[in-house]
Structure formats: structure tokens, C-alpha cells
What does this fold into?
Amino acid sequence: MKCMRCGLILAAALGPSTTAASQGHGPAYGLSTPTLGRGGWSVDVAAMSRRLDDGATLMLRPMLSYGITEDVQLSASLPLPLNTLPRVPNARGMARMPAAPDAELLLGWRFHRQGTDVGTRFETTTWVGVDYPTDQTRAGITTSPGLVGSIVTGYASRTLYLWAGSLHRRYIDVGGDSEDHLGDVTLYSLVAGYRPPMFQRDYPHPDWRIFVEVIGEHSARTVVAGERLSGTGGHQIFVGPTLLGLFGSWGVSGGPVFNAYRDVNGSQPGETMRLVLNTTLWF
It folds into this structure.
């Protein structure tokens, strides 16, 4: 936990991180629909940690995003691992940034947007991307590039927010099923948010939003020499509260999610909590 606290302090000191702009004024872990405006930029750094039975991981991830149009956004993020563990189950970590040491390029398209009333909207966004591992092996398995895709739909107003979506991450097995590769990861999320009336005012007044996030992850078994390893893969669900605060061109968000359900194969270390702290600068 000491490493975790040091990393969060460092992330805050570095400045830009992940939620206000590039996460689309949304949650820290779950999928959400908003994209940057046309010609808009955001610079982000996220500090993310996973607490397991045998220790904690810690990673910083900077991310640069650009709004090509009002509904199309391009993002690129890089991993900066600070503390790793040898047997960490494969995971996504955040909706728009992986917890794994992969460089990632994402393209988002908000292809459906419908205004239901003044200040309210119903919309749907899809994301596709490419991941490239920065490590040659992971948990003893040779790494390979991968693909990621997601879709999310939801409702947003000045007071209430609700998003539901799913994401799939696949490592490419160039040599077919006989090639060693890490198991696919499927993430699904349900996020509900509330913006109290006292914070429904424009800058320079603070703007705070409260989210309850439910994050499910299913990991497929890792394949070695065409055989699926019995002690890999499984299903976990995390639940917790997060906050988002906006201050002019800056945003800060994050919070913990706790393991509410765990069904993994073999003797993998138990994961009790995940923690994310995000700050964002957009311009």
C-alpha cells in the first residue's frame, strides 16, 4: 500500500490524468459515451493499482487524445510500470486504458446521439484499437500484439447518468491455436451517476459528480503449445464508488472498487481491490 500511495502522489504532481476530458466527463473504470469536441485536445495521466494477496501493482499511464470531429476521437496511451508482480491475472483495469504494460491506440465513434430534452441526451459510442506489448514475456508467456473493441450506450442529463457497455480484448495468435498467447479479456460495465443540484453551476464554481460503478471481467485461459492452462482464466466482479470533479480546464476523478465476486481457475492470487486516481487537462 505504501507503493500505491507514492504512485498516487506522483500522478497528482505530474498533473494531467484521465477522466474529465478524455474519459468524457465520465467514470474512472466503466465505459461511457462522450467524446472530445472537434479540434479539442486532452492530456492525461492515470495512476492505477491492483491489490492482490501477495502484494500490489502500480502503474502510471499518460494518454493523449484529439477530437477529429465532435463524434470521433483518437487516443494513444503508454504504460509506465512502477511495481509489478510475477503472477498477476490478466485484466483491463480501466475502460479506456489497460492495466497491462501495452501501448494502445484507440479510435472512438459516437455514431448515435439523440436529444430527449433540454440538457439531456441518449447516445451510443463504439471504440476500436490496437495494443502492442512493451514486455517480451508476461507470466512466462510470450506476448503478442492485440486488438480491442467496445460498445457502450447510455443516458446523460445535468443531474443523472447511466451507461452500460462491453469491451473485448484479444491477443493475436499469429501461428494459430498452437501459438502461445494470453487469454482474451471481456469487460462489461454498468455505471450510474448523480450530480447534486448544488454543483450544477458553471466555472468558477466546482462541479462534482458521484458514480457507482459495477465492473465485470471474464478472462479466457492462457494457451501454451495449443493447450489451455488449467490454472488461468476466470470471472471477477468489482463494485465501488468514484468521484469526478471539474475545475475549468482541469478535472480530477477516481476511487476504489472492491471485489464482490470471484471465480477463477487454479491457485491464482486473489484480487481484493483496485484503485485509480485521474487528473485531466484539456484544451
